[in-house]
Each structure stands twice: as C-alpha cells, then as structure tokens.
Design brief:
The protein is α/β, with parallel strands linked by helices. The chain is built from 12 helices and 4 strands. Strands 1-2-4-3 form a 4-stranded mixed sheet. A hairpin with a 7-residue loop joins strand 3 and strand 4. The longest helix is centred in the first third of the chain and has 32 residues. The termini are far apart.
C-alpha cells in the first residue's frame, strides 16, 4: 500500500477514534440517565436527605436525574472501606444540593471522589497510634490529585442523617469547588455572587466573625480560618438547617439565597446577571 495512503489513513484514524470514543461514552451516559430511578434509592433519599424531602414531585424528578448524571460521569471509590448505594447517593447529593439552581453544572474538573474509612492526616493516613492526629474529614484541591475529592465515610453519613443540623462535610467540600471555579479559593464565588453583592458579602463576613469571636454566634468557629472556610461552613448550615439559619442569621441567609438562587429574584438586575458585569 502506498505510504501516502497509509499516512492518510493514520491521520483519519487519529481524528475519528477520539470522536468515536467520545460518542460511545456519551451514549452510555445517556442510557444510564434515561433509566428509571430505583425505588430503593428514593427510599434512601427520603430517609436521609432533608433537602430532597422538602422538594415537590417535579423537582424531585430533576434531582434524581442530576444524581444519575453525576454517578454516570464521576468515579467514586472506597479506600480501605466499602462504598454502597447509600454512600454513592450521598456523595451525589453533596454535589447537587449547592448547584440545584444550576441544572447544567456537573463539576467539569472533578473526576474522582475517594471515600476514606474515617478522618485522615495531611499525609492521607488513617492509621491510629499514640500521639497520632487524624483530624481531616474532607479535602479538595490536593496538589498531586487535582480533580479529586476526599471524604470521610462516617462524617459523610453523619451529615445526611435525615435531621436538620448545621454540619455536612459533603456540602462543605463541594462548595469549596464552586468557590474555586473562578480560579481562586477566596470565599467569593464569582460564578454564584453577582458583583453588587460582593461588598455586602465581605462586610457580612467581617461582622459575623466579630460575633463568633465574642461568643455571640452559633456558627462553627472553624469558619474563622479564612474567608473560604467561612463560605463553606455557613453553606453547610444554610442547606442543612435553613429555617434555623434564616432565623438566627437573616442577613447571611439573604445573601446566600441570592448566591445559590434558592429564592425568586425580585429585581431586573438580579434576573439578568450579565447586566451587572
């Protein structure tokens, strides 16, 4: 066969094969999303996920399809622990709850979620011995594991126990990813917060920090670490116990409701974010 023909065939293969694999992968994802949502999964959600229980029938259907898409496109793996349907669903819920108002968003830079049997240290070790400190229960943005989220299994389960409370490590870590989407983990998620609210948001952080330091706030003091941790901590509270959060922190609640689009926007500027850019 003529070398020029061979070269042409190789070039054609180099173009067509990636396209074929891409289409094959997408077809497989579409098939998984199109399947009926298992009744056993619905039961788990109703028992454990307060956010899902509060949705109406139509929104539950949307939430379920988002779960199927997430699970079809992300790799969730246990490290020295088992991963069952409950864990898979709760990881997906952790990602979807903060982005429920953004139906097209599916964390494009996240490829894998690792589930650890418990808390871990800076070297990702879970072993226990005298003097050993393993206090991390969730992490994103690991330098040598970009695109990977790490979660402690017992803490993930604790965050979704079906009872409203301020803590949820899964939501915490996925909010960090939303914060990081604009290139900086700084507690000011530009993809969520319109420009005119950045100033009020930063001021509210300062005001609430003063209350936390003075012992006049029920927000977890871990939020004092930096603005990024403040955003993640209050987002846990906002989504996991919204009624209590709104009652005790109305200004923070109003700003987060705008950012996460959980309430109807009431001005033309809010309805058209492009007008603020």
């Amino acid at each position: 066969m003529d070398s020029q023909i061979i070269m042409s065939l190789l070039v054609l293969a180099a173009v067509l094969l990636p396209a074929w694999f891409y289409l094959r992968k997408n077809r497989k994802v579409d098939e998984q999303v199109a399947r009926a949502f298992p009744k056993a999964w619905k039961k788990i959600l109703l028992e454990r996920v307060w956010f899902y229980k509060e949705l109406d029938t139509d929104d539950r259907g949307v939430f379920e399809k988002r779960i199927q898409l997430f699970l079809a496109t992300k790799h969730i793996q246990g490290v020295d622990t088992t991963v069952d349907d409950t864990v898979l669903l709760l990881v997906a819920c952790s990602a979807i709850i903060p982005t429920f108002a953004f139906p097209e968003y599916n964390y494009p830079k996240v490829s894998a979620i690792l589930i650890y049997p418990g808390s871990f240290d800076e070297e990702f070790q879970t072993r226990r011995y005298e003097g050993h400190k393993a206090f991390i229960i969730g992490m994103v943005g690991v330098p040598h594991q970009q695109g990977t989220v790490i979660l402690s299994k017992p803490d993930l389960l604790k965050g979704f126990d079906g009872i409203p409370h301020p803590e949820n490590v899964g939501i915490h870590e996925f909010v960090h990813l939303l914060d990081k989407a604009d290139g900086a983990v700084d507690g000011v998620p530009e993809m969520l917060l319109n420009h005119q609210y950045v100033g009020p948001w930063l001021q509210e952080i300062k005001d609430e920090i003063k209350r936390i330091v003075a012992g006049n706030s029920d927000i977890n003091p871990y939020s004092l670490t930096n603005n990024a941790e403040f955003l993640a901590v209050v987002s846990e509270y906002f989504f996991n116990h919204p009624e209590k959060f709104e009652k005790r922190h109305p200004e923070l609640y109003a700003l987060l409701a705008r950012a996460f689009k959980t309430e109807e926007e009431d001005t033309e500027a809010e309805q058209n974010p492009a007008a603020n850019s």
